[in-house]
Amino acid sequence: MALSEFALRKAKPREKAYKLADGGGLHVLIQPGGSKLWRFKYRFGGKEKLLSFGPYPLVTIAKAREKRDEAKRLLLDGTDPGVKKKLDKLAAETEARQTFGLIADEYSTACKIAVQPKAHWPSQPGC
Where is the Integrase DNA-binding domain (predicted)? Predict the structure, then answer.
Protein backbone atom coordinates (compact mmCIF):
# COMPACT_ATOMS: atom_id res chain seq x y z
CA MET A 1 0.00 0.00 0.00
CA ALA A 2 1.31 3.45 -0.91
CA LEU A 3 2.34 5.79 1.87
CA SER A 4 0.57 9.09 2.41
CA GLU A 5 1.97 12.41 3.60
CA PHE A 6 -0.20 12.09 6.71
CA ALA A 7 1.13 8.60 7.55
CA LEU A 8 4.73 9.80 7.21
CA ARG A 9 4.21 12.84 9.40
CA LYS A 10 2.38 10.72 11.97
CA ALA A 11 5.10 8.00 12.12
CA LYS A 12 6.91 8.23 15.45
CA PRO A 13 10.33 6.81 16.33
CA ARG A 14 10.49 3.57 18.28
CA GLU A 15 13.18 1.95 20.36
CA LYS A 16 14.51 0.22 17.23
CA ALA A 17 14.59 1.42 13.62
CA TYR A 18 11.67 0.27 11.49
CA LYS A 19 10.45 0.57 7.90
CA LEU A 20 7.26 1.83 6.29
CA ALA A 21 6.87 0.37 2.79
CA ASP A 22 5.59 2.44 -0.13
CA GLY A 23 5.78 -0.29 -2.77
CA GLY A 24 8.06 -1.29 -5.60
CA GLY A 25 11.05 -1.68 -3.26
CA LEU A 26 10.73 1.86 -1.85
CA HIS A 27 10.48 2.33 1.90
CA VAL A 28 11.20 4.94 4.53
CA LEU A 29 13.46 3.94 7.43
CA ILE A 30 12.48 5.59 10.69
CA GLN A 31 15.44 5.81 13.06
CA PRO A 32 15.17 5.84 16.88
CA GLY A 33 16.40 9.45 16.82
CA GLY A 34 13.43 10.46 14.67
CA SER A 35 15.09 10.84 11.26
CA LYS A 36 13.20 9.41 8.29
CA LEU A 37 15.29 8.20 5.36
CA TRP A 38 14.14 7.09 1.92
CA ARG A 39 15.62 3.77 0.73
CA PHE A 40 15.18 1.63 -2.38
CA LYS A 41 15.84 -2.10 -2.15
CA TYR A 42 16.71 -3.91 -5.39
CA ARG A 43 18.61 -6.87 -6.80
CA PHE A 44 21.44 -6.62 -9.31
CA GLY A 45 23.83 -9.35 -10.36
CA GLY A 46 22.16 -11.81 -8.00
CA LYS A 47 22.81 -9.59 -4.96
CA GLU A 48 20.40 -7.56 -2.89
CA LYS A 49 21.36 -3.88 -2.72
CA LEU A 50 20.10 -0.72 -1.05
CA LEU A 51 20.09 2.79 -2.50
CA SER A 52 19.49 5.92 -0.39
CA PHE A 53 17.48 8.83 -1.75
CA GLY A 54 17.77 11.26 1.18
CA PRO A 55 15.84 12.33 4.26
CA TYR A 56 12.13 13.03 4.50
CA PRO A 57 10.77 15.80 4.29
CA LEU A 58 13.72 17.18 2.26
CA VAL A 59 12.93 14.47 -0.30
CA THR A 60 9.15 14.38 -0.74
CA ILE A 61 7.07 11.28 -1.41
CA ALA A 62 6.65 12.28 -5.06
CA LYS A 63 10.40 12.88 -5.52
CA ALA A 64 11.29 9.55 -3.84
CA ARG A 65 8.87 7.71 -6.14
CA GLU A 66 10.36 9.52 -9.13
CA LYS A 67 13.88 8.44 -8.09
CA ARG A 68 12.65 4.86 -7.57
CA ASP A 69 11.16 4.81 -11.06
CA GLU A 70 14.40 6.16 -12.56
CA ALA A 71 16.38 3.47 -10.72
CA LYS A 72 14.01 0.81 -12.08
CA ARG A 73 14.54 2.13 -15.62
CA LEU A 74 18.30 1.83 -15.11
CA LEU A 75 17.86 -1.75 -13.91
CA LEU A 76 15.84 -2.58 -17.03
CA ASP A 77 18.71 -1.17 -19.13
CA GLY A 78 21.16 -3.44 -17.26
CA THR A 79 22.77 -0.68 -15.20
CA ASP A 80 23.27 -0.80 -11.43
CA PRO A 81 21.71 2.44 -10.08
CA GLY A 82 24.06 2.43 -7.07
CA VAL A 83 27.14 2.31 -9.29
CA LYS A 84 25.72 5.04 -11.55
CA LYS A 85 25.10 7.28 -8.51
CA LYS A 86 28.71 6.80 -7.37
CA LEU A 87 30.08 7.49 -10.87
CA ASP A 88 27.98 10.66 -11.17
CA LYS A 89 29.26 11.87 -7.80
CA LEU A 90 32.86 11.09 -8.77
CA ALA A 91 32.46 12.94 -12.08
CA ALA A 92 31.10 16.02 -10.28
CA GLU A 93 34.02 15.98 -7.80
CA THR A 94 36.53 15.59 -10.63
CA GLU A 95 34.99 18.49 -12.52
CA ALA A 96 35.14 20.67 -9.39
CA ARG A 97 38.82 19.82 -8.88
CA GLN A 98 39.61 20.61 -12.51
CA THR A 99 37.82 23.94 -12.19
CA PHE A 100 39.89 24.83 -9.13
CA GLY A 101 43.06 23.79 -10.94
CA LEU A 102 42.23 26.03 -13.90
CA ILE A 103 41.53 29.00 -11.63
CA ALA A 104 44.76 28.41 -9.71
CA ASP A 105 46.74 28.26 -12.97
CA GLU A 106 45.17 31.50 -14.19
CA TYR A 107 45.92 33.17 -10.86
CA SER A 108 49.54 32.07 -10.81
CA THR A 109 50.00 33.18 -14.43
CA ALA A 110 48.40 36.55 -13.75
CA CYS A 111 50.59 37.17 -10.73
CA LYS A 112 53.67 35.65 -12.42
CA ILE A 113 54.44 33.68 -9.33
CA ALA A 114 57.77 31.95 -9.66
CA VAL A 115 60.49 30.78 -7.37
CA GLN A 116 62.04 34.12 -6.45
CA PRO A 117 63.48 35.70 -3.37
CA LYS A 118 60.87 37.46 -1.26
CA ALA A 119 62.29 40.86 -2.16
CA HIS A 120 61.35 40.30 -5.82
CA TRP A 121 57.79 39.12 -5.31
CA PRO A 122 55.28 41.04 -7.39
CA SER A 123 53.48 43.78 -5.55
CA GLN A 124 50.28 43.52 -7.57
CA PRO A 125 47.05 44.00 -5.64
CA GLY A 126 45.19 40.76 -5.10
CA CYS A 127 48.29 38.59 -5.41
Answer: 4-86
Print the domain residue range for 10.
Answer: 1-79
Dist. CA 1–CA 23, nearest whole Å:
6
User: pLDDT at position 26, please?
Assistant: 95
Query: For position 112, what pLDDT does the model report?
Result: 63
Residue-wise DSSP of 69-102: HHHHHHHHTT--HHHHHHHHHHHHHHHHHHHHHH
Half-sphere exposure of 55 (CA within 13 A, CB side): 6
Question: 52 and 73: one domain?
Answer: yes
Same-domain check for residues 31 and 93: no
* Regions of the chain where pLDDT drops below 50: none
pLDDT on residue 84: 92
Give the residue among 28, 21, 29 at the shortest CA–CA distance from 2: 21
Amino acid present at 36: K
